[in-house]
Structure formats: structure tokens, C-alpha cells
Amino acid sequence: MTWMAIHAREQFAILDHHSEAGSARFPVLMTDFNSGKELDNALLLQVATGDRNAFARLYDRLSGPLYSMALNMLDDRQEAEDALQEGMAQLWVKAPQFDPQRSAAFTWCVMLFRSRLVDRLRKRSSRKRTLERATLSTALDPDEPPVASELTDLRERCELVHRALESLDADQSRLLRLAFLDGCTHNELAEATGKPLGTVKTIIRRALLELRRRLNQEDYQR
Amino acid sequence: MNPPADHPRADEAIEWLLELDTPERHARFSRDLESDPSLRRLTGELREILALVSLDVPQHSAPSHLRTTILDAATAQTQAGGQAQVINPPQSFRWREPLAWAAAAMLVSGCIWMATERSGLLGRIARLEALNADLNVQVQVSKNAALLANMEIGTLQATLEEYRQGVAVVIWDESKQEGVLKLEKMPPLSAEKDYQLWVVDPSHANPVNAGVVRVNDTGFARIQFKPDALIQKAEKFALSVEKHGGVAVSEGPIVLLSP
Fold it and tell me: Which residue of A62, A203, B106, B227 has the lowest C-beta tally within 10 Å?
């Protein structure tokens, strides 16, 4: 048995006596964990053991942010839905590879999902158009209006991140968003902004450092 | 601890995380991560920060009608990695039974058949993972532990987009210093090029040549290979594109790499 399986078993031993019926299996989870981050970690470890109920719980927590990221990056509702389906299947299949000592569950899921979105973006022939759209604005106007997340911890995280990004230097936040949310390469960013390649790299590196510092100030880790 | 921006490899780490580097550099950085704790720490920190940027978009709920479909489709897949590790310990194995080769060949054939079947129903799921998952199922079902417990079975993953459709399975017997490679759906190469298999072993300065692999018109090949030098620990297997007939030291791009 892998150490992760052992870890998951220990962590969830307390849950084994609960009902097997759907999400009712975890009636105490929300209060047992101090933060959404811990809950996500615990759920993903449980998913790694093949627990479908835990997967449904994780879906309920992460499908919103992942779908929102897909909508923003792909700018196409149908493709975003396809991407969500593909991405969730990936999460299920790869869950046993999750190592909580290397990253938080949310991070692991987002980065795995983003990788698939970037693949889709890079396959598009309309790459240039996407870049132009991204360069002009990161706003999106889908058919469905944005909604405030029903999950308090997630809503707070969104607000913290948005506030921290907005407080960065304009170039830093713009280039960081374009690199991460639009899959733009350094070269594309250099071309779009007219800045030297090295400068673009430096701006993104400093943006990450500064974002980290500001999020720490905001006590994101709680 | 150095803050991320002060680390000499911070830019590389960012490119790796954003998948902006070349496949060769990506693979090299991945290898470095395994052996360098400070690099792992740096990359982990940057990964956490980057992932948070995903929250800086207008938030929408996923369409409710998708929930059941997605959950059913996803959980119909067999999970990769964890269970295979239970059955296939990473240590060297003793492969004394010729029957094991036959069992392995049957497994691989069965898995490919199952992957083909699945692709009709779940076309959006990556072919490689489907094969890997099916392989785990087959291993579990057979439960012929005396034969299978000591096998090292691995899949190679594409490092270049144009090889994403390719499926590669390696079975390696360290005690006999030989193995089997099976390829499917590999893009055809020009007459001046050949695929070449390499074994990465930390005890050798360079990847060890395991032979040239020629695929047929459908991109299929199955070879039994024996590396040129003694392999103490086969950490990874890699497939590269080299000039016709192969080379002593890899020069061309690595197109498939084991995780």
C-alpha cells in the first residue's frame, strides 16, 4: 500500500462509520476541518482511494472555479463544458498521484485542469484572436451572469486574490493574468506589449513574488 | 529560504509551471525537481501562488445538468497510479518464469483492446490514461501475483503535441536486463529518421541505448530490447527521434518519456 493510501486511510478512519448514502457520508466534514483548504486536501485523498462520494463533494466545491476558469480561458460555453468533463475525469484518474506534501489539493486540481485548457488553446487556429482579446481585456461577457460562490471560504479566497492582484503594479497584474489565464507565452507577451523578452520574464517573476507577499499579509493561509 | 525571485532558477520554474518551455527543457527540469529539494520547494511555492490567479475571474456555477453526467463518466474510469504501485513495487523484480512474458503480452494486448473500446464511449479521455487504467484493471483481475508482483510495467507519455496520440507500454525485467516495448499510433517518420529507445539510469552519465524501434504504417511496433550497458536502476524510459539506424548518444528530441 502506498503511503498516500495509508495517509488517506488514517485521515478518514473517523469517517468510515458514517452513512454511505451520497454526500450524507460526510455530515461532519465542514466543521471538522479548519479551512476549505484542509477540506479539499482531505477530500482529494479520499478520492484517491476510489471514494465516489468524496469525489462528488470535491466536484461541488471545485466545479465552479474550474468551470469559471475554463469559460474565461476558452470564451466558449460548450467548450468550457467539455473541458470541465474532461478535467474532472482527469482529476478522478490521477487522484492517486496527489501528494499533499507537494501541493494543496486546490492547487493540484487547478494546475492539472489548466494544463488541459492550455492544450485546447494551443490547438486553436484562432490563437491570434484569443491573444488580441486577452490583450484588450480579461473581462468576459458570457450568457450566464457571474454568481457569487455559495462556498464562503471560496468566495473569501476570490476576494483576497482579486484584491491582491489589483494592488500590484498594472503591468505585473496584466502580464501575470495573461500568462496564466490566457496561456500566453513570454514571446507572445513581449510581442503584444512591445517589451523585451527579459523584461516580460522579470515582471512576471516579480509579480508572483509580490502577490505572494501581499497574500501573506492578507493572511490567506488561514 | 530564498524568496522565489532570488532563486537562480526561478524563471525556469515559472516557465515549467506555465508549460512555456520546450519538451526537452521541461523533461530536464522535471528530472532536476526529483533530485533537488530546494528547487522542489521553490516550484511548490510558485505553484501555489499561480493557482490562486485562477480565482481572479468572474465566478460561475457549472451547469447543473452536467453534474451527474460528469460524475458518472469520470468515476467509470479506473484510477491510475496508486493501485498499480501496490501491485508493481518500484524495486527490482525477479522474473524467472517465461510465462510472465506471455502474461504480460496478453495484458498489453487486452489493455489496448479495452482502450480502443473505451475511446468510442469516452472519446474525450486521454488515450494514454485509458490504457494505463485498463492495464491496472487487468493486473488486478488476473491477480496471478506469483507472476505479476515483480513486474515493472510503465507507460510513456508524450512530451510533444504531435505525439499525444501515441501509446507506449514498457515492461522491464531488471534481473534479466531486458524488456518489451509496445508502441501504437506513433506518427510515421521520414526515411532518414528512426525512433530510438533509451533507459535513464543514474549510474550512467548518459541515457543507455536500448535500440532502434521501427513502426509499421499504422504506427505499431513491438520489440524485445536489451540495453547496451548494465542497468542498475531503470529510473525512466525515453523514446527519441534520431537519424536512421540510431545513434550512440541521444541527439534528437525526446518524444515520449515515462513519468
Answer: B106
Same domain, B107 and B222: yes
Pick from A212, A214, A218, A219 the residue to mutate for testing the B interface (most B CBs within 10 Å): A212
| Residue A117 near residue A83, CB atoms below 8 Å | yes
Task: Say whether both B104 and B188 belong to one domain.
Answer: yes
Same domain, B35 and B104: no
For residue B85, give the chain A residue with the closest CA: A2
Classified by CATH at the fold level, domain A1-126 comes out as Rna Polymerase Sigma Factor; Chain: A (1.10.1740)
Q: Give DSSP secondary structure letters for B83-144.
A: HHHHHS-SS------HHHHHHHHHHHHHHHHHHHHHHHH-TTS-HHHHHHHHHHHHHHHH--
Domain boundaries, chain A: 1-126, 148-222
B230 touches chain A (CB under 8 A): no
* Bridge partners, residue B199, by sequence: B208, B237
Can you tell me the distance from the alpha carbon of B61 to that of A150, in angstroms, rounded to the nearest whole number? 9
Q: What is the pLDDT of residues A81-90, one digit of tens each?
A: 999 999 999 9
Longest dimension (CA), chain B: 59
pLDDT digits (tens, 9 = 90+) for B145-162: 444 445 577 888 888 888
Give me the domain span that covers residue B49.
Answer: 4-53
B52: contact with A, CB 8 A cutoff = yes
Tell me the C-alpha to C-alpha distance, in Å, between residue B108 and each of A8, A216, B9, B173: 30, 49, 40, 16
| pTM for this entry | 0.54
* Nearest neighbour of A147 by CB, restricted to B61, B77, B133: B61
> How close does chain A come to B182, measured CA to CA in Å?
23
Which ipTM did the prediction report?
Answer: 0.75
For A178, the enclosing helix (H) or strand (E) is helix A170-181
Residues of A in contact with B124 (CB under 8 A): 82, 85-86, 89
Question: Any residues with CB less than 8 A from the CB of B235 and at least 6 apart, and which?
Answer: B200, B201, B202
- Considering the domain boundaries, does residue B73 fall inside one? no
